Amino acid sequence: MFDWLIEPGLFANHSVDNALAVGAVVAVVSAVVGIFTVLRGQSFAGHALTDVATAGGAGAFLAGVAPLAGFIGGGVVGAAAMDVIGVQRVKGRDIATGVVLGAAMGLAALFLYLSATHSSATGTTQLILFGSIFTVQSSTLPEVFVLSVAVLVVVAIIGRPLLLSSVSTELAFAKGVRLRAVGFVFMVVLAVSVGLSAIVIGSILSTALLIGPPASALKVVGRFGVGVAVAMALGVGATVLGVVLAYDSFYWFPSHRGLPVSFFVVVVVVVEFGVASVLQRWRHARTPTKPRVANAGDPIGWH
Amino acid sequence: MSDERKNAGGGELLRVEDVDVAIEGREILSDVNFRIDQGEFTGLIGANGSGKTTLFRVILGLQTVARGRVTIRGEALQRLNRSIGYVPQKVLFDPDMPIRSRDLVALGIDGNRLGFKRRTRADHQAVEEMLHAVDAQDFADRKVGGLSGGEQQRVLIAHALVSRPELLLLDEPLSNLDPGSVQEIIGLLHQVARQQRVAIFLSAHEMNPLLSVMDRVVYIANARVASGTTDEVVRPDVLSALYGHHVDVLRVHGRVMVVVGEESGQSFTAANHPELVVE
Amino acid sequence: MFSNYMANAWISGTIVAALAGAVGFFVVLRGASFPAHAIPNGAFAGAAGATLVGVNPLFGLVSFAVLAALGIGATSRRTRNDVATALSLVLMLALGAAFLTLSSVYEPAINALLFGEILGVSASEILPVFALGVLCLAALVLLFRPLVFTSVAPELAEARGLNATLIETIFLVVLALSTALTVPVVGALLTFSLMIGPPAAARLLSSRPGRAIALSVALALVTVWLSIAGSYTFNLPIGFFVGSIGAVLFLGARLWGARFARPQQRVVA
User: What is the 3-class SS of chain B, one letter each residue?
Assistant: First the structure.
């Protein structure tokens, strides 16, 4: 009863401490990957890949294969498809994302329907979408940790070319950065990262922690390194606060039902963003800076 | 056209030989020949749409040629030779981008490097020196997205130079600046070029501000090119042959004015040829 | 499948497809795929909330869709578009999850809302659906030129006196209403696919606005008709067919275009 009401992914087989630890790891990875995602304007792809990963998970569930493989595999296939269609070019990248997402959602519809008719799992659909249906078995935890570390290592390796190409594709090209390759590796990293967070904390939180804390951090910091640190802090903070509030909410309602962790974490993330926006506007009011348009012109035609 | 050797810089750095470029059937460049020696300050002068950008793309390895070749120090051009730095015309930085001027220049050293290698003391030193060389210390710690056009330009120049290229390409660096800034940037480039021993190749549609610093001019018109010193190139006979019809060259108070007739007539339209701007 | 009792399915499907095809053309033109995906999800949250409160879900669908649209529009002015959309989306989804937790909605109803239900629109609802659909289409027809102008050259349009913000807001509201109408038939998760796949394919095949819209509507109609037929015949969710056919149409249009493309200037290796 308890696990049905609150994110089964976080609570089912663990004590709250374990849940917090895993959530924090995922929050940290999301912050690092997320700050690049926001700077590169790929928030839609980041969100879409969560849903694609979930569709992969549904497929894995149906096929009786390890769910983690489905989440990660589905996400990577989706990222590759987006890359082929053209997600790296600024123009038309939302179409590439949208088409792949549409196909994935269609498949998810199929998989979930087949699961529902072939198995006796109830509440499958909404659990898959709003919380992780795949109660993270303690045996999967090591894999989650390893993959998280792998993601961070890869980001560190491509870090400078990735940063330069996010700052300006022209300058990056002029320095010899292989834009397409770096962009593709990033898409794969993004897919793995959101796949991990989707399976551990659910698809809503996956997007929320990927986009929210980095976006908030960017509004208040002036240096990239500091931005990453602040994003991590905001992400972990939101996760911890959300879990605590969810636990407490159990006692708020007369019916003792409590609200899901995802709800509280999202609210904290949105509040963080609101506060950051106010801080940014306050700072701008004191030190006026010239407004700039944020869309790279491309006269020499790097693409 | 004439291609005189210059004893200023020393060895040959860039050579463009017999280059033809056609895009979608249209001839953009035809029989282009010129060279740039080490340390030379060269201006690529031509009207908008004359093919300056295409020529840069060829040198950067972004554009295939139908004929001819480009060599760096005698060797065939690889895509993005390490010896060539590039400053784009205008980079639009995201206002949220948390990169300071200092960070952008540092990325000029290792922006393309994979791996974990931390920046050394020598790297930080090089960044400081370059910021000093372009006089950007006042805004070294400000976000690049908040800089003015002139300030941004200095940072971009520092970013390109910090990796010590031998040739620096600048795409219309003067076009968006007010006249005061134009002189500043030219002076800066001239000085830095001497200090760092870098050859400068910049494109512009107005050559007058550059007359005092250019060692060589590459004049592009009608898909063809004439190169040499200003005196050698900016002459009625040379330019008439280039344009394909009669051209007059006037010198007014030390400035040059190229007057291009339309076909056989004597009339000219300033709109077609911005190099006719009289100051 | 052409029996009397399926009549509603065909009628509502046709209305919805025509609307989605037309609105979708502008979604693709304006690069608004993310909002087109986010708004129906918001609508879903509204339906869940409405059920919780005991109100007709359609009311929840429409109100939350419009709320989501306005929220995205308002936040976009303060921050990047895609961040605004992402945060609005997760907020809506979180609310939806909360509503679902607090109420006890019958699962097939949730599935129907998410993935579509060919009998999703009952006979009594056909008329209001038709009326709202016509209203939205009328708005698009009236605003056709300003919409195209502001999508293609926003600064020029502003210079000509067009209020881009107002037009953007109107467009988002029309989008919201269209998605609210489409969700009961195609499902919250696949509505956006109908507004992206067929129109994107149409745009690849024709660059003239008039022709592209007509083609977009035609392709959307084909998609929905095939989906209804497929759903009826194979007893699979309609959303599956919409998503798959949309993707196939898009890829088909890409391949078709590639056959006639001029060889690009290749870059030096």
Answer: CCCCCCCCCCCEEEEEEEEEEEECCEEEEEEEEEEEECCCEEEEECCCCCCHHHHHHHHHCCCCCCEEEEEECCEECCCCCCCEEEECCCCCCCCCCCCEHHHHHHHHHHCCCCCCCCCCHHHHHHHHHHHHHCCCHHHCCCEHHHCCHHHHHHHHHHHHHCCCCCEEEECCCCCCCCHHHHHHHHHHHHHHHHHHCCEEEEEECCCHHHCCCCCEEEEEECCEEEEECHHHHCCHHHHHHHHCCCEEEEEECCEEEEEECCCCCCCCCCCCCHHHCCC
